[in-house]
Amino acid sequence: MTTLSPTKARANLTHWLKRAVAGEDIGILCGDKVVALRTVRVFSEDSDYAKREYGVTDAELKAFVKRENARNARDRRAGRLTRYTGDINAAIRD
What we know:
By secondary structure, the protein is α+β, with helices and mostly antiparallel strands. The chain has a 3-stranded mixed beta sheet. It contains 5 helices and 3 strands.
C-alpha cells in the first residue's frame, strides 16, 4: 500500500484517485490511522436502496409502493395533498 501524508495527497489528489480507481491500494494518514482510498458501488435506484438499507424483499417493496400510492390518491382527492409550486415561503405560510 502506498501511504501518503494529507499534504502530499492533497498536492496531487487527482493522480492518487486515478491510481486508486485503477486498483492500487492508496492510504492517507489521519493521526495514527490510515484511511484507504477505494471505489465504492453507488446505487441510484430507490428500490436498490430500500432492499440494501432495510432488507426488504421485492414483494414487500411492491406492496409498500401500492399501499402508499393508494393512500396518496385518497389524500389528493380529499384535498390533504397540494402540489409544491417552487415558492417555499408560500408553502410555509399555508
